[in-house]
Amino acid sequence: MSDCQQGKKACINGIQMYYEVSGNSCAAHTIVLLHGFLSSSFSFRMLVPYLSKDFRVLSVDLPPFGYSDKTKKFYYSYKNIAATVLQLLEEIDIERFSVAGHSMGGQIALNMMLQSPEKIDKGILLSSSGYYARAKRHHILASYLPFFPVYVKHYLGKTGVVGNLRSVVYDQSLIDKTMIEGYAKQFESTEIFPALARLLRHREGDLPEKSLQSIETPCLLIWGENDKIVPVNIGKRLSIDLPHAQLVVFKETGHLVPEERPKEVYEEISSFIN
């Protein structure tokens, strides 16, 4: 029997972390879901009902996104975000799990595999970012300017939520009022923009090949053939650099794989874990 979805908060590493627990509390296996950039646990709303049939599911709002804190005191490097998620799992007594990360969340998942491989059974990368370098020095220096958060707000507002969704979804008919409002909610708090400036400043870049090649965790890579944000070539490259990886590519699918192909993603994950 599946339990209802519950939203909770915990104080971890000096910030309030928001997470949602759903699925069967007696399930033998737990899956931790990590969303991408400018997103939240909302992006897994179509996938969670499927996963909840077989697994205990934990969806985490990575700082500074969703309902997690957007404080100026947090260090927003991938390494620190990964360590903070691991601390959260330890705090709520989840000792072993599989981790699934979408887009930027894939890099957080990979960092977790490096930091605590003994805790992670399987890794699932959903259109994961990969091989992106750190921001250029002049952008990092600009992030210290007082008006930079205003620039970030203006830059993101140029295309708007609908414009951004059109670039990440293959089937445009999927973009409805619920989807638009869910992703727009991210920007209701003005605190998000200074935090995004800090994320730009602190982000150390994606894991290099040497680090990827040292990851022993079995990984399933799921990609959309029509992904314009993280092209499928990144998935192919990751499948080579990760020692124990397999790649699945869905046709007529963009970057938002959990939203566009939830049933198929669930089937691939279930088969991979079981």
UniProtKB/TrEMBL annotation:
One of its GO terms (molecular function) is hydrolase activity. The keyword Hydrolase applies. Keywords: Hydrolase. It holds the Pfam family Abhydrolase_1. PANTHER family: ALPHA/BETA-HYDROLASES SUPERFAMILY PROTEIN (PTHR46438), LIPASE-RELATED (PTHR46438:SF11). The keyword Hydrolase applies. Residues 30-262 form the AB hydrolase-1 domain. This is Hydrolase. It comes from the Bacteria.
